[in-house]
Amino acid sequence: MRVCERWENEEQLLAFRGSGPSGAQQAAVVAARAERFVVVRAGEP
After folding, report:
1. Contact at 8 Å (CB) between 31 and 40?
2. Contact 7/16 with Cβ under 8 angstroms?
3. Among positive and negative, which fits the CA dihedral 27, 28, 30, 32?
4. Residue 21, CB half-sphere, CA atoms under 13 Å: how many?
5. 21 contacts 29 by C-beta, under 8 angstroms
6. Phi-psi region at 20: left, alpha or beta (left = phi > 0; alpha = psi -120 to 50)
7. pLDDT recorded at residue 27
């Protein structure tokens, strides 16, 4: 499964992330990889 998130700014991202997933969520994760992409512009082609 691939999950993508889109945030208006860094502050919103960090507020959402908080301290991370709960212990139960962490136990359910088999593998994870996180990458950050900075998108300069988004919209209709």
Report:
1. no
2. yes
3. negative
4. 8
5. yes
6. left
7. 92
**Does residue 18 sit in helix, strand or coil?**
coil
User: Mean pLDDT of successive 10-residue segments in the chain (45 residues)?
Assistant: 85 85 89 86 83
The pTM (predicted TM-score) of the whole model is 0.51
pLDDT at 28: 92
Instruction: Report the C-alpha dihedral over residues 24, 25, 27, 32, rounded to 10 degrees.
Output: -170
Task: Determine contact, residues 5/11, Cβ cutoff 8 Å.
Answer: no
CA distance linking residue 21 with residue 7, whole number of Å: 18
